[in-house]
Write a structure and sequence with these properties.
Shape: globular
Number of domains: 2
Number of strands: 20
CATH architecture of the largest domain: Alpha-Beta Complex
Mean pLDDT: 84
Strand content: 15-25%
């Protein structure tokens, strides 16, 4: 089926959205420190958010000049201003950040699905260490057993510091080059090393198979530019194997860190005949958008079960929430990560970019999952023998996270979910799917 043109065609989650230059403003430097009187201000009739805080800017300039003139060692002007710009974003929230040119390029590579590295989604920590959000399927990181919630503290024996976040970072490198990571993991007493060989990561974000005759399984590992088309191709292939009469589908979104919103919206549309998919709300009109389904369900109404865990974030939560709120799918697994914010990418004239949180997103029922996550209909628990079976892993536990609408102070992350590995959750999802099959399989369609 075709999806209606989307008003924010380049929107990303998780991280990952594009900002219209319409939000950027050219602001002249202040000539004096006193605020401009409203009666003399040509923009006085505009929203207060467009007015420049002259006194604060004057203070910034004063500190800038003091450092430039009196710091013990000379500081390059461009480096000093670069640090000042980064500082504007530092205390906003964990997902607002400044991308150097190399970082911006890496960002583009990851959304396109090809880059050189180890194949892992990460969250930069304030002390320079890196938290693993999720290893990408069939990559060096996944093959050596990296897990959601792991902390990478050193690369090739060198402890990570905040400066290591600049550029593409030490995890990137030429294909074939080796790298040793030092890992801290919940439930493991001491840090341990793992050795990996970097590859060109061409992420196959969708794969599928038949679990039993009539019951299909599709795994979506991330939402990239081609993910929706790949999903349709894989599902159509499984439909053909099932004689165009699939009885049900298990959609596996475990440890899916998110990605392109448009891909998640398209997959939701593939499984819905009608209804809302997701809406976003921010402080500016361009941040507000609403996405709805168009007629046509590739599963022809057959039941769907969505499998999630604590590593299911952002666009993965959008898809799960859309199917659940439209009563199209049952959710099985553990509470999701709870990243309900929209990031927007603003390209700068020097090749750098700013990634800024500009909106919250809401499921079709109007719920925000920010710092809350999606609670499954059927709750599963990790194997008690797994070292990270009860790991605290949630947006609500990130320092400086956006406060959720239903978040209670002092209880952040108290109901954090668990990461669910292995095949046991798939078996549980299949059992739940069979419960939903209350009538004969649909007749084949010509």
């Amino acid at each position: 089926m075709s999806l209606r043109p989307l008003p924010l065609a380049t929107v990303l989650l998780a991280t990952w959205l594009c900002l219209s230059p319409a939000l950027a403003q050219d602001v002249p430097p202040p000539e004096k420190s006193q605020p401009v009187a409203s009666s003399d201000d040509p923009d006085a009739t505009e929203n207060a958010t467009t007015q420049v805080p002259l006194a604060e800017i004057q203070r910034l300039v004063s500190v800038y000049n003091a450092v430039r003139q009196a710091y013990v060692d000379p500081v390059d002007d461009s480096k000093l201003m670069h640090s000042a710009i980064k500082g504007l974003l530092l205390d906003l929230d964990p997902h607002s950040t400044y991308f150097d040119k190399d970082d911006a390029q890496a960002f583009d590579e990851e959304t396109s699905g090809a880059y050189d590295g180890i194949g892992v989604e990460v969250q930069q920590q304030a002390d320079g260490t890196v938290k693993v959000i999720a290893p990408i399927d069939d990559t060096p990181a996944a093959r050596v057993g990296l897990k959601s919630g792991d902390i990478i503290t050193a690369v090739d024996g060198h402890p990570l510091t905040p400066s290591d976040a600049e550029g593409q970072g030490p995890l990137r490198g030429n294909p074939g080059s080796e790298v040793t990571l030092t890992i801290e993991r919940d439930g493991v007493d001491k840090p341990f090393d793992v050795k990996l060989k970097r590859e060109t990561i061409r992420v196959a974000s969708v794969r599928g198979r038949m679990l039993e005759p009539g019951y299909a399984y599709v795994r979506v590992a991330a939402f990239q530019a081609d993910t929706a088309a790949d999903f349709e191709h894989v599902l159509d292939g499984l439909q053909a194997k099932g004689g165009n009469a699939l009885r049900g589908l298990v959609l596996d979104l475990r440890s899916n860190p998110g990605g392109l919103l448009t891909s998640a919206v398209q997959i939701a549309d593939d499984l819905l005949d009608q209804g809302g998919i997701v809406s976003t709300r921010g402080r500016t009109p361009i941040s507000d958008a609403k996405f709805s389904a168009t007629p046509g369900d590739r599963m022809h109404g057959a039941p769907v079960v969505v499998l999630v865990d604590a590593g299911s974030a952002s666009a993965a939560e959008v898809l799960a929430g859309a199917l659940h709120d439209n009563h199209r799918a049952r959710i099985v697994g553990s509470r999701t990560f709870g990243k309900g914010s929209v990031q927007t990418l603003l390209p700068l004239d020097n090749g750098d970019s700013v990634k800024l949180t500009t909106a919250r997103y809401y499921t079709p029922s109007g719920k925000s999952i920010q710092a809350r996550g999606i609670e499954p209909d059927v709750v599963l628990h990790a194997d008690a023998k797994s070292p990270d079976a009860h790991a605290d892993y949630a947006e609500a536990l990130l320092p400086g996270h956006l406060h959720g609408e239903d978040e209670v102070d002092g209880e952040a992350g108290s109901n954090a979910g668990e990461t669910l590995d292995g095949d046991a959750p798939i078996a549980a999802a299949l059992a739940e799917l069979k419960k939903q099959v209350a009538m004969p399989a649909p007749k084949p369609r010509s």
